[in-house]
């Protein structure tokens, strides 16, 4: 059962890390795997940066939501975040 819990946090964490890498590479004008087939225009780097931002926010948000849910269930959050 712990393996399922570890995988449920590891996969979104890896997706978030890939998103951060895509954003970094778009700043330094390096087109990565699916994007280098589109050419060398500026739109490729903008598209890569936006997709990287979506992946990073999604991955980090999932992990943060999981930790928040677990802490709220155990009663380790402040009073305003507790369920009523």
From TrEMBL:
Transmembrane spans: 43-69
Top-level taxon of the source organism: Bacteria
Identification of the protein by name: DUF2627 family protein
Keywords: Membrane, Transmembrane, Transmembrane helix
High-level lineage: Bacteria, Bacillati, Bacillota, Bacilli, Bacillales
Pfam families: DUF2627 (PF11118)
